[in-house]
Structure formats: C-alpha cells, structure tokens
Design a protein that fits this description.
33 strands; 735 residues
Length: 735
C-alpha cells in the first residue's frame, strides 16, 4: 500500500507543475472539431495502412481456412480407419494453404514453417542431420568403391594363390611323398576352399577363402590363422613349410583327435547311455561345436536348456565333463564309457521353470510357517487353505475370510515361477511383488474388427509374430517384423524400411497420425502374415534398457562411418564412426549404432540392429533363475515408457519362453531386392526450377506437386512381391 501512495504522490506533483506553468493563450489556435476528424481519417487511410490491412485480412483468412482443415482432420481421425485414404486426399490442399501462408510470412519478414513435416527429437545433444546431398552421395559412393574394391581384390588374389598352389608341381610332389592328397580348388557360393587329406581321409589342413570379407584362413586340428602372404611365391613357400615342418604333428593330432571323437560318439550311442538319456529326459548333440582348441558336445534337458558338456581338448587330446550349472564340477576322465552315466545322473536336469517354481513354493511355505505371519492372519480373520490346488499351468493357494468366503488366491505360474494374485475365478493376475491397489498394466486396446481388404492373412499354429518398432521423436525410426517358430525354436526377422511409401505417405508416419494398431493392421495386410503383438519403444527408453542391464558386447567386422550423424561427446562434435573391433556399448552408443544408415547399405544397418538384438539376448541369457525378479523390475520400468498391447505378465512369459531361441539374422526390404526408388524432386531443387523459369520468362513448372522426398515402392508397383519376399524369408531356409 505504501508503494502505491508514494507513486500517486509523484504523479500529483507532476500534474501540479504542469498546471502552474504560465499559459500563453494568444498563441494557441483552436482546431475545429470537424477538421480534426478529417485529418485523423486521412492519416488512417494512408497507403501503408491499407497494405497492412490487406495482409492482415489474408493472414486471418488463411488462418481460418487452416483451422477449418484441422477440424476436418480431427473429425476424420475420429472415424473408422477406412477414411485414411480420404485424409490423404486432403493433404495436397492443406500443403497449398501452407505454401500460400508462407508467401505472406516471407513478405512480412517472418520465418516460414513446415506445415506438414514432423521434426525429429534432437534433445540428445547431437547436432542433427547433414543435408548436403552431394557430400552424402560422395561419402556413400567412395565408401562402396573402397570396400568392394578391397574385397574383390582379395578374392581374386587369394583365389589365384590357391589355384597356383593346387597345380604347383613341387608342392604336389611333396604331398605325394608325404602320402597325403589335395581336393584341389573348390568354389562355392560363399567361399573358395582347398583341403589336404590325411591317409585316413581326414581333413588335416583346410584353406578357406570367405567371399564375404575376402579373408583367407588356414586351419588344422590345432589352430586357425589368417593368411597374410604378400605374393604367391610367399604363399606357396608358407604352404610348403607347413607340410615339411608340421605335417607329422598335424597328422598325429588328427588321428588321435578323430579316434577320440569316434570313441565319444560310440559311447553316446551305446544302449546303456541311450536308456539313461531317455530316463533323465536329456539329449546329447550329434555334432560337436569346434573352435578355440576344443570340440564340445552339448547336453540339454527336456526344455533344451544347456545343463552339461563333453569337452575334447584338441591340443592335449583329453576328454572332460562339465556341469554348466556348477562351475566347480569339471572332471577329466580316462574312460568315458564308465564315467558318463554317473556324471549324467548327477546333473541337475530340472528346467529353469521347474527350478523357479520349486523355489517359489519353498519361499511361500517358509512365510506361511512364520509366527509373525500366522499372527497377522489370526488378527485379520484370514486363512490360507492347507490343500494346494494344481492344474497344468498353476499351483493355487486359496485365501478365505472368517466366514470361509473365498477371497482370492496366490498362484505360482509354472511357465515363469512368478507368484501372482488372482481372483476367485483365476483371472486378473497381478504380480505379488509389485502389488499396488492402483496398479494397472500398460496395455492398449486393439480394434475389435480388422477390415477385410480381399487379401488372405495367414497365421500358422506354432508361430508367433511381433512387430518390434523404435521411435525417435514423433516418427518410427525402426520396424522389425519378427517371426518366431516354436517348433524349430528359431527367430527370423525382416527389417522394413521407414521410407516405404503406402497410400500417399511414408509408412513410418502411420503411428503418428493413426496409432500403432493401424500400422499393425497395414503391415499384416501387406506381408500376408498376421501380427499378433507389437511393441513401440522410444529410442531413449531403448537407452535405458541397455543401461539397466549393464551394457552389451558387440563385435563389428567392418567400420561404421556416418557423416549424416553428428555426435557430441565430452563437448566435442564429430562424425559418427566406429572402427572394426570389439565394443562394450552403453545405451547411447548402441542407439547411435542402431540408427546409423549412411555410407553402408540398408542390409548393413539391419544387420547391426539385429546384432544389437542378439547382444541383448546374449546378455539376458546370463540371468539365472534367481534373477527373475530383477527381470520383472526391468520389464515394468521399460513398459512405463513403451506403447504396446503386451501386458507385463505376458512380456515376462515371452521372455522365459523364447529366451533360448536362436536369432537368425535374416533380411531387410530394400532397393537391393524387392523395392525401387521412384523419381523424386526435392523441395530445394523445385525452388531452383521455379526461379529459373521466372528468370527466363517461362511458365512455372508443376514440381510443387511432385514427390519431394526419398521413398521406396515395390517393384512393378505390385505389393504381391512383398508377400512373396516375406514367404521366402519366413518359410525358406534361414540366410
């Protein structure tokens, strides 16, 4: 109040000062009222004010028209998704209004806006995209030339080396003298090979040239090394030295190792062992996995969980038995025939789920018998039935009140070993560890009906299809159609490019305008395979997932260089790049690697994404049955940042069910196979064309209506090609 009084007082003094000044009345000429109004009217109707008024009117008019269009969009988006085509037809008119508005904004000196584009989120700190098309094209072309030239050169050089070795008279005489033979050069689709056979017919020495990376290797039973000879003379000399210096040791080890391997196969196939395997419901692999100086035969339980191994050391020619669930149990055996059955009998062949279920039963029993818990039940007038119910999926502990009314049940899910709370009819499961009266699983309702477009959408028994999608900002950045075969216990994936053009728009914009259920429906229609579930994870939640599990380990065979991806590390901006080698990646690094797409093919980007999924699965496999609660916590946290129609309990069940399945890195739809790039005119090029036409006095080109962005379409514009592609990948042999 005091401040206001002080202010008023100052104003009063000022007014007093003005009033007390002497006034020279004779110098003031009175202006007639009508004349004064005419002058004001003349000033208001100046040319400048008229122009500004017209511009204001146009802006208001454009604003009202665009608002009307927004209202139309809102109405149509609230209708059935069959109206998507109609919305697409309005797009052109909407863009035209935006262009007209931009002309007015430009005239007024205001910045123009993109009235239809969706900006990507750059809050990670990276400086954004490089839009220099010439630079990008040059990076990509030079990288392609460099990589392919090096590979082609190596393949041609090493094929020539092998060819010269196979016909070298001195080398052939040496082989004959040593009583060994050669296969000659054998060329296949993916490799060029040459073998040196022992007198017994074993592949004592193998030369293997990979057509994928252009590297040549020489392998024996003892070691595998990469050939680094600079000339054919050096290569032949090295091959000759190998025969002269090491052949006797190689042959000796080959005979010893093959004899020992034959003995292992004989013992495993014996009647007593076969009977015991059936009794214990376990199996031993027919063929060993070779590498790192060992041949390993795997032992699996009934759920195909690895429980033991038979190791054959190829250097010392020793056999050992390993219990994979107990690192302290590794037995070197002299006589496998007498040692194998006792070892198998001591293995814990229970499945992961059986172990978790038994652990949960023990924990519940301990709690039920606790004196404090018994006191709580007494005070609450509650009882837990002594009779345990059981069916194929659950073990039930029923809870009753003092009037013996069945309130609910604690159940152990046999599929996961997780303890849930369920209603009296067994529905509405809720994890006991995360019980919260306000807890609700994050799920999304799917449309009750999916329109029939006249195309067959199939779903075979024993298969499960899920769309794994990732987004950055508002647009979906990654789409991987995942096909799980529960018979073969395998996972096959096809990456779908975000630039695929469908019904007048890029397919990755569908979730932004119409939601994930629409994308799910469209992909089922296009591929001919029904998607059972989907999960859309924000790229920054993806970072959290990897950080929560302590990062992932990946091996890059080739360098990754992406000039379009500017990164900021420790305050320093640079081009995204990774040298070949082994990496332990945190969430941010893994995200960068997954999103990088330039100077490498679409196939390479998809392979990296699938490599990251494989690394995630490998890390997940390290979780023991005691870590199920940790997995639950991670899944719960992730679903809070994820849009999906998969419930929390479903997600955990899927994790345990498919944890051990083999991921087969499969394929990606691209311009390299079933898609093509239609002609397009960029907005920048269109502007140049318009300016040139105006300068030459020519008619304005109609490029405003052209396709302004890079897009992909199926070859011959036939969407049946896409269905064929998916059938080949999902039903054919894995790549």
């Amino acid at each position: 109040m005091s401040k206001k009084k002080k202010s008023n007082k100052k104003v009063s003094k000022k007014e007093e000062k003005v009033i007390t000044q002497p006034v020279e009345e004779e110098k003031i000429e009175a202006v007639p009222e009508k004349k004064e109004k005419k002058m004001k009217k003349t000033n208001f109707l100046s040319l400048k004010n008229i122009i500004l008024g017209v511009i204001a009117f146009l802006l208001i008019s454009q604003y009202l028209q665009i608002q009307s269009l927004f209202g139309t969009f809102s109405f149509l988006e609230g209708r059935d998704s069959s109206l998507i085509t109609e919305i697409g037809q309005i797009k052109e008119a909407y863009i035209q209004f935006g262009e007209d508005t931009n002309e007015i904004r430009s005239y007024l000196g205001f910045p123009t806006k993109d009235y239809f584009g969706v900006e990507e989120d750059t809050s990670s700190g990276d400086t954004g995209k490089n839009k220099d098309e010439l630079q990008l094209a040059l990076f990509q072309y030079m990288s392609f030339l460099s990589d392919q030239e090096a590979i082609d050169y190596n393949i041609a050089t090493y094929t020539s080396y092998l060819g010269n070795l196979a016909v070298d008279e001195d080398y052939l005489e040496l082989l004959e003298e040593k009583d060994v033979s050669t296969s000659g050069v054998l060329e296949g689709e993916t490799s060029v090979s040459m073998y040196i056979y022992s007198p017994e017919g074993y592949k004592a020495i193998s030369y293997y040239l990979s057509k994928e990376d252009g590297n040549l290797y020489v392998a024996t039973y003892l070691e595998k090394t990469e050939v680094e000879a600079e000339t054919v003379e050096d290569f032949i000399a090295d091959a000759t030295d190998l025969i002269n210096d090491d052949l006797s040791d190689i042959l000796e080890s080959a005979v010893a190792i093959e004899d020992e391997a034959a003995e292992i196969r004989e013992v495993v196939a014996s009647a007593d062992v076969v009977t015991e395997l059936g009794t214990l419901s376990i199996t031993i692999s027919d063929e060993p996995i070779s590498g790192n100086g060992e041949m390993v035969y795997s032992i699996y339980n009934s759920s195909e969980d690895l429980v033991g191994e038979i190791h054959l050391d190829t250097e010392d020619v020793e056999v050992s038995l390993v219990d994979v669930n107990d690192d302290s149990v590794t037995l070197t055996v002299e006589d496998l025939s007498t040692s194998l059955i006792p070892f198998l009998q001591k293995l814990d062949t229970r499945t992961f789920f059986e172990l978790k279920t038994e652990e949960a039963m023990t924990e519940l029993k301990t709690t039920f018998e606790d004196d404090g818990f018994q006191l709580l039940l007494t005070q609450a007038g509650l009882t837990i039935s002594d009779e345990v119910r059981e069916d194929d999926e659950r073990i039930y502990y029923d809870i009753y009140d003092s009037s013996e009314t069945h309130l609910s049940s604690l159940v152990i899910e046999k599929q996961t070993g997780v303890i849930n709370i369920v209603g009296t009819d067994g529905t509405n499961p809720e994890n006991l560890l995360f019980f919260d009266p306000d807890y609700k699983k994050k799920t999304l309702e799917l449309p009750d009906e999916i329109p029939d477009y006249g195309d067959t959408i199939t779903h075979e028994d024993g298969t499960f299809n899920i769309l794994i999608a990732g987004k950055n900002g508002n647009l979906v950045d990654t789409m991987i159609f995942t096909h799980i075969d529960e018979v073969e216990k395998s996972i096959k994936m096809v990456s779908i490019p975000r630039d695929l053009f469908y019904n007048g728009r890029k397919i990755n914009s569908l979730p932004y305008f119409y939601g994930m259920p629409e994308l799910q429906k469209v992909l089922s229609e296009m591929t001919g395979y029904e998607l059972d579930k989907y999960i859309l994870i924000d790229m920054y939640a993806f970072i959290d997932v990897i950080d929560l599990i302590g990062g992932i380990d990946v091996t890059l065979e080739k360098a990754v260089i992406d000039p379009t991806y500017r990164v900021v590390d420790n305050g320093v901006a640079s081009t995204l790049h990774y040298e070949p080698g082994d990496y332990h990646l945190g969430g941010v690094e893994a995200l960068r690697l997954a999103r990088s797409r330039h100077t490498s093919s679409d196939f390479a980007r998809a392979e990296r994404q699938q490599l990251i999924l494989q690394a995630l699965q490998d890390k997940a496999r390290n979780f023991g049955f005691g870590d199920a609660d940790t997995i639950y916590a991670i899944a719960s946290s992730v679903l809070d940042q994820t849009e999906t129609d998969v419930g929390l309990d479903e997600a955990i069940a899927y994790y345990f069910r498919y944890q051990g399945y083999e991921i087969l890195a499969n394929n990606v739809m691209s311009s390299g196979n079933v898609l093509y790039v239609p002609p397009y005119t960029t907005v920048e090029n269109c502007a140049v064309m318009i300016a040139a036409a105006e300068e030459n006095g020519e008619d304005k080109p109609g490029c405003e209506n052209d396709n302004h962005a890079y897009t992909l379409l199926p070859k011959n514009n036939d969407w049946n090609v896409v269905k064929w592609f998916f059938e080949e990948n999902f039903e054919g042999e894995a790549a």
